[in-house]
Design goal:
flat, three-stranded antiparallel β-sheet, alpha+beta
């Protein structure tokens, strides 16, 4: 699909997907005002949609779909479990830098130099991808900023992809440069095999409007309409969070997109969790101690200004209440806080959310127990580690494609760097650090049984070391090992004396005849 000349943007056939992105993004950001606006349509009064069926009625029947009564402030509270889940997903994958190796030494050195920035990029993409279902990595370069191209992340709700046989063939990224109620400046960036195309439009929200030269806006005035990449592949890749996508499985435009951690019943469970939390806080608010006093005890603020009661006053003048309804007494009222009921309900809702998203309660510190060893951590977080392994299967291939594409682009556009294009081998780091005491005990038992060499034991204890480090350590161990001692049980004169080169004479017994 070439760059459009105008019309609706994003394209009309993708509107259901972008509407769903808006829902997921609102939960990810976690603003109570935005959640209320999303589900109520910013209408303060009861709406007929609450009596409808389908998705409109479902939204209206949710806790966040109940409008705030007129004259009351918004008292609904939000538990940011959605953002916690997205952060946990990214931490499990890239909290430690992945191991990226190639055969060429110059290329390996180049990859090692860009690894800190690459890890930060992957952390950002994995967090947003857990919420939206995936993310894009695109190649960018600017010689005024850096001496080599790098990978930058693009969020899934700012791209229009094109697929071939389930693979990303081309993609159009877009961003809004300036906007108000009437005017919107759009920048479109189309990545395809061999070229990157840029276009500028001035329209309104939801409409591209008229095409303008790139020099018409300061953000795009230094860009070229067409940038030749000199490689026969797209300079962007798509990294899915998880597949298959249950929501768009039968929708061709979204069948190849990744699945969000919030898909399915998770949104309804998070909505119920917010309702429980709001009810708990409402109990606390209503349980504040209050004094009920006769009307005669109130101090008037003047005509039409109301009245108040001073609890620190010690003396009251005589009050005539004969024939009146007021009684000369002050009563206190304080409601009970249903602490246990709310806590148990919230714990069950959190457990249901974590089961649906594939994470363990231990990962969020909800089990109440502290794991001491790495074995205990792995056992308690088995479900989280299983989910991490599944996500790794969907993450490693496209990240490898992106790095291979970046190396090809670097070799074509920056040959002075001496980079050789090749597909790197990627291994995700362990999210649970091994227990060194257990590793040391295992190494000792293996050495005692003579079941492993020095090199094998060094690699087991230092899995993050490269070949040079392992070899240096093996040599150091060999140099530090003492020379073998002479056999203390060897007979005197054995292998020594004039007959050492031949067969030694058979020793004679101290008393008695020679041995046979």
């Amino acid at each position: 699909m070439p760059l459009p000349s105008g019309g609706t943007w994003p394209p009309q056939h993708l509107q259901p997907i972008y509407s769903h992105y808006q829902v997921l993004d609102t939960w990810y950001r976690g603003s109570p005002e935005e959640l209320a606006a999303l589900y109520t349509g910013q209408q303060p009064a009861n709406r007929p949609s609450q009596l409808r069926g389908g998705i409109v009625g479902a939204f209206a029947r949710m806790f966040w779909g109940a409008p705030t009564p007129a004259g009351e402030k918004l008292t609904k509270l939000h538990v940011p479990v959605a953002s916690d889940i997205a952060t946990m997903s990214a931490d499990l994958l890239f909290s430690e830098p992945p191991t990226v190796t190639v055969e060429d030494e110059a290329t390996q050195e180049h990859i090692d130099q860009m690894m800190p920035q690459l890890q930060a990029t992957l952390l950002e993409g994995a967090e947003v991808g857990a919420a939206l279902g995936g993310y894009y990595l695109r190649a960018v370069w600017d010689e005024q900023i850096a001496t080599a191209p790098w990978l930058a992340v693009v969020h899934a709700d700012a791209a229009v992809p094109e697929w071939r046989w389930g693979k990303l063939w081309a993609v159009t990224f877009w961003r809004i440069l300036d906007s108000d109620d009437q005017t919107c400046w759009w920048h479109l960036e189309h990545h395809e095999p061999g070229a990157i195309r840029h276009a500028l439009f001035k329209g309104k929200p939801g409409q591209l409007g008229d095409s303008l030269p790139l020099s018409a806006h300061p953000e795009t005035e230094n860009l070229q309409p067409v940038v030749e990449t000199h490689i026969d592949r797209c300079t962007a890749v798509y990294v899915p969070n998880m597949r298959p996508n249950r929501t768009w499985r039968n929708f061709p435009a979204g069948a190849n997109l990744g699945r969000s951690d919030f898909d399915g019943p998770v949104l309804g469970l998070m909505d119920a969790l917010d309702e429980t939390w709001t009810s708990w806080m409402r109990d606390i608010r209503l349980a504040k101690a209050r004094l009920i006093v006769p009307r005669s005890y109130l101090q008037s603020l003047g005509k039409g200004q109301g009245a108040y009661f001073d609890p620190d006053r010690e003396l009251y003048e005589a009050l005539d209440v004969l024939g009146g309804d007021d009684r000369m007494e002050i009563s206190a009222q304080q409601f009970a806080i249903r602490y246990a009921e709310h806590k148990e309900t919230q714990a069950e809702q959190l457990a249901a959310i974590l089961r649906a998203t594939g994470y363990s309660a231990q990962s969020f510190g909800l089990s109440g127990e502290v794991a001491v060893t790495a074995t205990e951590v792995s056992a308690k977080e088995r479900r989280s580690l299983t989910t991490r392994a599944k996500k790794g299967l969907h993450t490693i291939p496209p990240v490898g494609d992106g790095l291979e594409m970046l190396l090809e682009l670097t070799a074509k556009l920056f040959p002075q760097l001496g980079v050789t294009p090749e597909r790197p081998a990627i291994v995700l780091a362990d999210s649970v650090s091994p227990d060194m005491l257990q590793l040391a005990q295992t190494a000792e038992l293996m050495r005692r049984a003579e079941a492993a060499s020095d090199e094998t034991l060094v690699r087991m204890l230092h899995s993050d070391w490269d070949e040079d480090q392992v070899k240096a350590e093996v040599d150091a161990i060999a140099d530090a090992r003492p020379d073998p001692m002479e056999d203390p049980f060897a007979l005197p004169g054995e292998m020594t004396g004039p007959d050492a080169e031949g067969d030694p004479e058979e020793p004679k017994a101290k008393d008695g005849p020679p041995r046979e």
